[in-house]
Every structure is written in structure tokens, then in C-alpha cells.
Amino acid sequence: MIAVVDTSAVLRMFIPDGPIPDGLEAFFRGVETGANLAIAPELLLVEALNVVVKKHRREELTTEEAESLMSLLRQMPIRYYGHLPYGSRACHLAIETGLSGYDAIFLALALDRGVPLFTADHQLEAVASRKGIGRPRG
């Protein structure tokens, strides 16, 4: 199975800010065996960096933890796509749905590829579902 993974979903695997989306851990076990493919826009790493830096500034992560987390994220078996080709579609989606431009990039990739989307963001999940891009099924 191929699925888009967004920043909120991936970070939940490392930072316990809420529940890990159903099926995400099993999906990544499948990625490790080659049965599944995780894809994301390169924006994922930029968004993750922003979250990690904010947590460091609030003293929720030490410098070492922040650097280690970013290293782990860079090593995750995710195939990245440039986000620029999805800008126009993401702009339309953001305006139409009220999503942030960032979330709309992930949705645009999922729609373009015709694949499901893992997210921990309830608004993004709801919009994806309305667009026919649901949560991956085990």
C-alpha cells in the first residue's frame, strides 16, 4: 500500500502529544519490509523542524533530544516529493476548505497520487474524507 504521511502523524510516533493515528505503526512496519510505501512532500521535514524548535524553546526537549529527533526523522523510510508542483492545487484546496496551506500540500499530494492519507489533524482528516481520500485501511 502507498500512503501519504503528514507531519502530525509522523511526529506522534516520537512525541506523545496525543494518540498515534490508527494503523500508522503497522503501516511503517510494512514500509520496513517493502510491502508499503510512505510518501510525503519535503515540507514534512520543515514542519517537523519548526515543531522541534518550539518544543526546545519551551524546554520540552533538550538540545540533544531535538537534534536526535531531527536525525531520526531524516532517516525515516519516506519517499519525499518536492511541494512546488502542488502549490496551485493546494492554494485552491486551502481556499475552498479552510485548511492551512501546509495541510493542503499534503492533501494535494494524496489527491494527485490517489492514495490515502495518515494524519493526526482532525480537520485535515475530515476534508480528506470528503474528498474521497480516507484514512488507510489495514
UniProtKB/TrEMBL annotation:
<keyword id="KW-0540">Nuclease</keyword>
<feature type="domain" description="PIN">
    <location>
        <begin position="4"/>
        <end position="128"/>
    </location>
</feature>
<keyword id="KW-0378">Hydrolase</keyword>
<dbReference type="GO" id="GO:0000287">
    <property type="term" value="F:magnesium ion binding"/>
</dbReference>
<keyword id="KW-0479">Metal-binding</keyword>
<protein>
    <recommendedName>
        <fullName>Ribonuclease VapC</fullName>
        <ecNumber>3.1.-.-</ecNumber>
    </recommendedName>
</protein>
<keyword id="KW-0800">Toxin</keyword>
<dbReference type="Pfam" id="PF01850">
    <property type="entry name" value="PIN"/>
</dbReference>
<dbReference type="GO" id="GO:0090729">
    <property type="term" value="F:toxin activity"/>
</dbReference>
<keyword id="KW-0460">Magnesium</keyword>
<feature type="binding site">
    <location>
        <position position="103"/>
    </location>
    <ligand>
        <name>Mg(2+)</name>
    </ligand>
</feature>
<dbReference type="InterPro" id="IPR022907">
    <property type="entry name" value="VapC_family"/>
</dbReference>
<dbReference type="InterPro" id="IPR051619">
    <property type="entry name" value="TypeII_TA_RNase_PINc/VapC"/>
</dbReference>
<dbReference type="InterPro" id="IPR002716">
    <property type="entry name" value="PIN_dom"/>
</dbReference>
<dbReference type="GO" id="GO:0016787">
    <property type="term" value="F:hydrolase activity"/>
</dbReference>
<keyword id="KW-1277">Toxin-antitoxin system</keyword>
<dbReference type="InterPro" id="IPR029060">
    <property type="entry name" value="PIN-like_dom_sf"/>
</dbReference>
<dbReference type="InterPro" id="IPR044153">
    <property type="entry name" value="PIN_Pae0151-like"/>
</dbReference>
<dbReference type="GO" id="GO:0004540">
    <property type="term" value="F:RNA nuclease activity"/>
</dbReference>
<comment type="function">
    <text>Toxic component of a toxin-antitoxin (TA) system. An RNase.</text>
</comment>
<feature type="binding site">
    <location>
        <position position="6"/>
    </location>
    <ligand>
        <name>Mg(2+)</name>
    </ligand>
</feature>
<comment type="similarity">
    <text>Belongs to the PINc/VapC protein family.</text>
</comment>
